[in-house]
Amino acid sequence: MSLFEQNSWKQQGVDYVIKHIPGEPRWGVFSPEEIALASDPSQVERIKTIRSGDVEKIRGLERIHCCDLTTEPITQSDFMVSNNGFDIPVTSYCLTSQKENSNKPAVLYYHGGGWCYGDRAVVENPCRLLAQYAGAIVFSTEYRLAPEHKYPTGPNDCYAVLRYVYEHADEFGIDKTRIIVSGDSAGGNLSAVLSHKDRNN
Q: What's this model's pTM, rounded to 2 decimal places?
């Protein structure tokens, strides 16, 4: 198999695709670049910076997150969703011109950070831009992080918000048939987990 080929298959209604890391012929291993990065002691300080929410110090690495690129007014609001006695903070973003529409699509967006750092603030500007370009109401979830909160706390928080959005679709002006989950890095993994969980339930 060449490095540009991939394995793909369908299992229980889900399409799976596995691709090689460029330059790494083995399956299931980290790239040499990732191993070097993880072995660099200076990365510990970067992780602490990200977890502290000090975005200014990491502007060079997180540039897109620091720039509001929207060109139309966005309405933003915060609310809480309860999950087994814990209140999960959620922020919604919507084009102000579409706020009163009753048939909007919805995007639930989960931030990345290796399940142990990151927050809604890091993805605020991408969520604002997504709301503008998709014409959707975007929900960003402040799920609980490891290692303080053991698996499956994070995915359960995200699923609780997904259920809440679905069950309150009329209040948000959402078309229930057009709700998607998405995210970057760990958030992409969470989206896949929620898709399986929702299908199974």
A: 0.71
